């Protein structure tokens, strides 16, 4: 089997074990940073280790553990574009909405340079991420879909986890909306699509469609066998 021409590195930030993802094409010196977490210095160390310079920051949503590193990234690279779903943009500047106030460490993020809507394409570092609106965990949550060499990759933030789903008890969360986002958006993707969640290990769309105890086997889906 030929070696993959897509690089994906994960930096896990405490205390919420949040996943920051670095997507890049081997041989290039730029990358896309998705959801910079609460330990930005670890992200910077990983970028230095890999010899990469970020071309953009993409945020799946505006909760504190997924935007906490934005400031450090923009300080290091002032011209670095920052993109987030249109509906979650207010969270960047509001500690109450981004939940940092609730956890006792109020902060804000630099403002967005780009607001994302359903169907937008983010083209950075030689990669093209298609935007899906996937609300439910937060009102403006988006998922990012990358097609590369016949393989689908989904950066799903806090929508779908291995064997679980994102919380819906935050002020703008809603379980019915989250379930619809998963069934109508994510579960339409190929079974072998790799899901990179905001917390925990990777999974696949097929695995979660069949076995996820919260949202698996939606109406109309026939289980194998």
UniProtKB/TrEMBL annotation:
Residues 17-199 form the Metallo-beta-lactamase domain. Keywords: Hydrolase, Metal-binding, Zinc. The keyword Iron-sulfur does not apply. It comes from the Bacteria. It comes from Pseudobythopirellula maris. Its cofactor is Zn(2+). The lineage of its organism: Bacteria, Pseudomonadati, Planctomycetota, Planctomycetia, Pirellulales. Its EC number is 3.-.-.-. It is an enzyme of class 3 (hydrolase). The keyword Membrane does not apply. PANTHER family: HYDROXYACYLGLUTATHIONE HYDROLASE GLOC. This is Putative metallo-hydrolase. Coiled coil: none annotated. InterPro entries: MBL_Glyoxalase_II, Metallo-B-lactamas, RibonucZ/Hydroxyglut_hydro. GO terms for molecular function: hydrolase activity; metal ion binding.
